[in-house]
Amino acid sequence: xxxxxxxxxxxxxxxxxxxxxxxxxxxxxxxxxxxxxxxxxxxxxxxxxxxxxxxxxxxxxxxxxxxxxxxxxxxxxxxxxxxxxxxxxxxxxxxxxxxxxxxxxxxxxxxxxxxxxxxxxxxxxxxxxxxxxxxxxxxxxxxxxxxxxxxxxxxxxxxxxxxxxxxxxxxxxxxxxxxxxxxxxxxxxxxxxxxxxxxxxxxxxxxxxxxxxxxxxxxxxxxxxxxxxxxxxxxxxxxxxxxxxxxxxxxxxxxxxxxxxxxxxxxxxxxxxxxxxxxxxxxxxxxxxxxxxxxxxxxxxxxxxxxxx
Length: 309
Hints:
The protein is an alpha/beta fold. It is built from twelve helices and eight strands. Strands 1-2-3-4-5-6-7-8 form an eight-stranded parallel β-sheet.
């Protein structure tokens, strides 16, 4: 079973928003040394990434061989256009898609804990919309382990939900200091039963995450964004992944994509194949087993989500 724990649902997408999101795909292409047309990628994002019904998602899953996807929304209280009402309408839409495709889609709400309404918003998401957790992008300017966040996470924990929190530097205006994996350290103490996924595992800053994950039973990390490294510097990717597994344990690593963003440059089916082939293709000194790859691609997420019970 292949489970993608990190997919960005975009119910609506203006041209300006499409250009902003597409820059991540363009940057990935540049890192890979691939010549792309930035305007074409942005236009493709504007035309195809908006997916209010989930139909594009299911089509992409079928093409890539993904069995289950956790979709997420991103809230930013600093964006005046994203009112609580608009965010709740989008969160409801995400929940509707998950209900429309049971067994294939689960949904995380986008709720910025800086909103005074945030605890009530996430409560409604669980009790009315069928959401299973919350997605944070703390690099918008808040501490995921701060008092405002705790008011939201108390509700998430009460509903046996999960947290997916961004960890990794991004280009400005992202505030990278709030994306440090170490800011998640207190959550395992104060919310011992709350599964927390550190999106990207901190990426180039993965060692602090690995140190925490080794000691904290409920802390996981995903491979979203790592496809760029896998295809750009294959041997380096293999050695990094092997060391991550050795440090944190294979059970803590989850498959994630950040789609539809990176799928525009690196087809997800290709990333899945690269991972499946690692037992045969990894360079000397960093061997992988079939059981490890099976666990990363879906077994670990299934256990975290309780699908094996």
